[in-house]
Hints:
By secondary structure, the protein is α/β, with parallel strands linked by helices.
Amino acid sequence: MGDRIVVVEDVWGAALSDLARTHEVRRHPDAWIDPDMLRDAVSEATAVVVRNRAQVTEELLSAAPDLKIVARAGVGLDNIDVAAADRAGVVVSAALGANAVSVAEHTLLLALGVLREVVAHDRDVRAGGWERRAGVELSGKTWGLLGLGATGLAVANLLRGFGMRIIGHDPYVDPKDPRLGRVEAVGLDEVLARADVLSVHLPATAETKNLLDAALLGRMKPGAVLVNVGRGEVVDEAGLAAALRSGHLAGAGLDVRGTEPPGPSPLDEVGSVIYTPHIAGITVDSQERIVARLVDDIRAVLSGADARCSVGKLAGVRRGAA
């Protein structure tokens, strides 16, 4: 059997179309919905392409004996058991940083949307109203970054033209790292207390789950705005709703939720919240970059070379390799 690349979510891009000219590429964009359907789809695959919904478990990996690489069209790895892939000798590739600019732009969109009440004004005008409420400027304020990886630093880069002070917290980043540029690295308590806008750029881990609970949200600067483009599990939604209803926080822009798609939430009744459906990193531009990188890695691994964007501990070790 020749190499078979199976795409199990809605992933597209010019590089995938080019790959289909030289390899067998099968598309099952809805296979992620049902575990049995997903197992059947990948059973003969040598490469699998996922986004963030297909659950790549140890069981799924064992159902694909010829699998050599799982290519993640994005950066988060919540849906992939990387340790199980390591044990199976399956490379996991993720285009880390490829969508950082897209996420950063969306972060600013959410913050500005909350501060200028864009959604509420739009609804009001459509209903025949013309209420002109004053918004809040970013200029002269302090922006706090929770997480100083690629997306956090991309936000800092975009903020250079806004005349803001930029502070950030990340326990895994050296405060003297030259890549921080004009970002002032501070402790968690300080970033909470000083930030007029706090944007979250954290993955979902045991350490970050419900990190921003009612207690920490209560330590944020009164009147601040929270933007979450990291992972929904980081923010306690009940605590956030309480902080917004009390007026302690002015608003929130949420691209990610604890459960996706979300069920009913206490946030639904709070007018100062803007939702988007986990699209911060999804732009035409970012998807082309991401797909180009993952296709390069698929070609490399299937030809016996190493993946450039491997995130597993067994980088360069492939099933069947010596």
